[in-house]
Amino acid sequence: MQIKSRPMGAYQTNCYIVTINGKDLIIDPGQHATQWVLDNVTHPVAILNTHGHFDHIWSNAELKKKLNIPLYCPDEDAFMLEEDPFGQGTPSSHPDHRVEGDALLEIAGIKIQYRHFPGHTPGNSIIEIEGHWFSGDFLFQQSIGRWDFPYSSGTDMVRSLQKAMQIKGEFAVHPGHGADTTLSTEQKMMHFWIEQVKQTL
């Protein structure tokens, strides 16, 4: 497996290209991602969104049209792709597949596990591929996603962190912003973050 990444747009949102057996998966194509993606794929098979915030989905529509490939996003966040609820002028995109909960998918022979961790958004998920977590805005290096935005939920964030604490195994974590980390490293901080979130409820 090969992973390429590039921070995109004003929020430096990491866009990822994951290549397995010559097939490319595009994860969270944000602002100005289109040309970089086109320059770095040879056999694209899908676009995958971790959640619906505009800085992660901005180039969905353009890439979907240019590459003629399906778009997957968490079911509860599909409205963010279609309606631009934050009024950012985000190009509307329409998911071909609305992923519900913890779903195991197979795309072009590649197994992809969506793990649902709501809180940052209703549908917020990580995308697990061969021991790698593409964590969107759920987990960062020494931090977690915000839970004070419209459509966010601190109560859901606490539950999601409690769920993530129980997951066994070593996973590389590739977040939506900033540097890579590992799940075991971030699990050491989850008690702290749970208490921080609870104080705001």
Task: Offer a few descriptive terms.
201 residues, alpha/beta, Metallo-beta-lactamase, Chain A, 6-stranded mixed sheet, 7 helices, globular
Describe the protein in words:
Strands 1-2-3-4-5-6 form a six-stranded mixed sheet, covered by helices on one side. It has a single domain (2-198), classed as 4-Layer Sandwich (Metallo-beta-lactamase, Chain A), CATH 3.60.15. It is of the alpha/beta class and 201 residues long. It has helices at residues 34-40, 54-57, 60-67, 78-83, 154-165, 183-187, 190-198; strands at residues 2-8, 13-20, 23-27, 44-48, 71-74, 97-99, 103-107, 110-116, 125-129, 132-136, 139-140, 143-144, 172-175, 181-182. The model has no long low-confidence stretch (mean pLDDT 98). The chain contains seven helices and 14 strands.
What integer is the average pLDDT?
Answer: 98
Strand share of the residues?
A: 25-35%
Distance between the termini: 41 Å
Total tally of structural domains: 1
What is the 3D form?
globular
Per CATH, the architecture is 4-Layer Sandwich
Number of helices: 7
Order the strands across the largest sheet as they lie in space: 1-2-3-4-5-6
Low-confidence stretches at least 5 residues in length (pLDDT < 50)? none
The biggest sheet, with number of strands, parallel, antiparallel or mixed sense and barrel status, is:
6 strands, mixed
CATH topology: Metallo-beta-lactamase, Chain A
CATH class categorisation: Alpha Beta
Gyration radius (Cα, Å) is 16 Å
The secondary structure category is alpha/beta
CATH superfamily: Ribonuclease Z/Hydroxyacylglutathione hydrolase-like
| Helix content percent band | 25-40%
Strand runs, count? 14
Order of helices and strands: EEEHEHHEHEEEEEEEHEEHH
